[in-house]
């Protein structure tokens, strides 16, 4: 049988061209996704479609462009946040570890702030906790417990994330990564000084968090163990995830360690008061937010 090498060569060239075109579209699509998502995020518009085949690597690239775009309005990076610190959520979304986002300067609001109830496309509130880096030597820490030596404060924090995605969009870990793990705003309490003691290890792990509505009804409750088994584990994971990308924590960086509670929808006229029991040696501490 005679083989038509000319036709085979031509078909091969066509296939190569198609593959190259698809690859360029995928690459462009990742960049376009980051920019498009940022624009919709800033305009508080729900995202109604998203590429369900996006990989985590592609999502991280999209997140980089997303952050670059929104930082023009929300300021420079001041720290990081961990998401999916609950193993059950990781399993549900097909990942084996948390995911990371970046906190920007204007995302962080003072205790008692009054915030528009429509601060995002899908605005919610969650119990959270922040620790502050006091020494860059944290980058050399070998264990979660060792990170405590390089943290100088723990800060009560009500996160006000925006999950952005509208109904019908399949929620995946890459999708959440691409939107910077939903970081939009958050309410900072007063910093509590940390010390390198076994007592503080236990306080961080075993404190109780309670969230109350404007009527004084408790609407959510959680423990420090919800944060990847303990806040120091979550802080260490953030450090490790940055190191894997050749990045380092800086003195003053704020680390949001994950959700202590289920998301609570933000509603006009509502208010939320968070209470931390067993965290501060001086007694219960609170942080609050109201929605107009």
Q: Rounded to an integer, what's the Rg over CA atoms? A: 22 Å
Order of helices and strands: HHEHEEEEHEHEEHEEHEEEE
- End-to-end Cα distance, whole Å, is 80 Å
Structural class: alpha+beta
Percent of residues in helices comes to: 25-40%
Low-confidence parts: 1-32
User: What would you call the shape?
Assistant: globular
Task: Tell me the total number of β-strands.
Answer: 14
So how many helices? 7
Largest sheet: 9 strands, mixed
Hey, roughly how much beta strand do the residues contain?
25-35%
Task: Give the overall pLDDT as a whole number.
Answer: 89
Report on the architecture of this protein.
It is a single chain. This protein is α+β, with helices and mostly antiparallel strands and 292 residues long. 33% of the residues lie in helices and 26% in strands. It has 7 helices and 14 strands. α1 packs parallel to α2 (56-74). The N and C termini lie far apart (80 Å).
Main features:
single chain; 292 residues; alpha+beta; 14 strands; 33% helix; disordered N terminus
Architecture blueprint of SSEs:
Layout: H1 5-42, H2 56-74, E1 77-83, H3 87-92, E2 99-104, E3 108-110, E4 114-115, E5 124-133, H4 144-147, E6 151-160, H5 173-178, E7 185-188, E8 192-193, H6 198-206, E9 208-213, E10 218-223, H7 231-243, E11 254-256, E12 264-265, E13 271-277, E14 285-291
Parallel strand pairs: 1-11, 3-7, 4-14
Antiparallel strand pairs: 1-2, 5-6, 5-11, 5-12, 6-7, 6-8, 9-10, 9-13, 13-14
Helix pairs in contact: 1-2
